[in-house]
Amino acid sequence: MTDPKLRVLLSSAKIQARIREMGETISRDYPAGNLHFICILKGACFFLTDLARAMKRDVFVDFMGISTYGKGKSSSGEVKVTKDLDISLEGADVLVVEDIVDSGITLNYLIHMLEQRKPKSLRIAALLDKPERRLRPVPVSYVGFQIPDQFVVGYGLDYAEKYRNLDDICVLEGVGEKE
Ligand code: IMP
Ligand code: MG
Predict the structure, then answer these.
(1) 3 state SS of 164
(2) Per annotation, catalytic residue among 102, 129, 158, 168
(3) What is the third-level CATH fold of 13-147?
């Protein structure tokens, strides 16, 4: 896709190599027991499918729909569950798989909600982390890449539902960063 507004930040090869490493680390950290990957829709679905295939052990996969952002780039601060899980988390090791941690509002809310479902353990894996933007504390156990405060698209991440199917993660230029 040639689009003058897009600048590659992380190439597909770099993303895939990092996910393979993450899969190996996470596999080592969970040698036994039921491990549930919870994909936060829609952005994390590309990351989840690659991370699950990089694992050296069985994983359960489930999906949760959460919306915090409207059609643009700023967080409304409101978190809404749009699709709940199908499988019970009771007694299971749970890894929330997220595309990016920005303000932390989404995951901070979600973690509190999931703790009430009595998992044996609960951790977060995020492909991207923008630590400068944090408003709420979020303990992220596995981070793919820390990135600067720039709005990125591709590999699941969208701007108004566009650009999700790019292979690379790109900075979307020409649109104000702090709306
Ligand atoms: P938070 O609640 O502010 O941490 O936002 C998390 C959600 O905002 C992510 O799951 C993304 O869907 C979205 N988001 C945050 N930063 C970006 C970005 O740079 N590009 C695309 N989506 C983003
Ligand atoms: Mg998301």
Answers:
(1) coil
(2) 102
(3) Rossmann fold (3.40.50)
